[in-house]
Amino acid sequence: MHNFTIAIDRKSLLEEANRIIREHEDYMQGMLATEVEQKGPVLVFRGEFFLDEQGIPTPKTTAVFNMFKHLAHVLSEKYHLAD
Questions:
Q1: Distances, alpha carbon 66 to alpha carbons 6, 13, 71, 73, in Å
Q2: What is the pTM of this model?
Q3: What angle (nearest 5°) sits at the alpha carbon of residue 34, between those of residues 31 and 36?
Q4: Which superkingdom heads the taxonomic lineage of this protein's source (predicted)?
């Protein structure tokens, strides 16, 4: 399953993910990956989503979702969780 990826601990992976987020052209204030889990060969990232007063997702939520999808694509090719 992990033949071509490097084992990495959650803390180090989240640090790299958040560096990628901050340097990405679509970065918005408040975007932050706070959790990651391994689902088969895919790393799944989670963090704050942005809702309005009625609890409805804002356009910023869509941007965060897309960023987490980007992280999954980029980082799943390089890493797998060591734990």
A1: 24, 18, 9, 11
A2: 0.89
A3: 120
A4: Bacteria
